[in-house]
Amino acid sequence: MGGQYSHMLHQARGLHRHPHSLPHIVTVWVLTQDRHAHSVSLVPTRRHPYPDWALARRALLGHRIASLRRAAGLSQDDLATAAYVDRRSIMRWENGVRDPRYLDLVMVAHALNVEVAELVAPDERR
């Protein structure tokens, strides 16, 4: 890895050894890698985790995508093709692992022949 990140990486590796020397709010940097295990960059982790209500909404969105997909008689592959995304993205959204980007959500809604509002409505009265 280039010298520009070596100091930050050294500090990040030492966080667990000297927690008393850290300020109360700290940004932890994570080394990302590409699929060939080459170092790509250091990116900050979220300073605060998502609240439970936001994670519940993510799970609800995933359940709605899955149920509407099944009602339309589509497989994850079929929906991915129709929405111009990867099948793994559909799987991650349905399992509540990731959030779709807005335009991906628009494409999924279009492929399922529903409005985006029907996917993201906060209650079950769709």
UniProtKB/TrEMBL annotation:
What would you give as a GO molecular function for this chain, any one? DNA binding
Residues making up the signal peptide according to the UniProt record: none
Q: What PROSITE patterns does this protein's entry cite?
A: HTH_CROC1
* SUPFAM superfamilies named in the record: lambda repressor-like DNA-binding domains
Pfam (any one): HTH_3
> For the HTH cro/C1-type domain, which residue ranges apply?
65-119
InterPro entries per the record? Answer: Cro/C1-type_HTH (IPR001387), Lambda_DNA-bd_dom_sf (IPR010982)
Q: What is this protein called?
A: Anaerobic benzoate catabolism transcriptional regulator
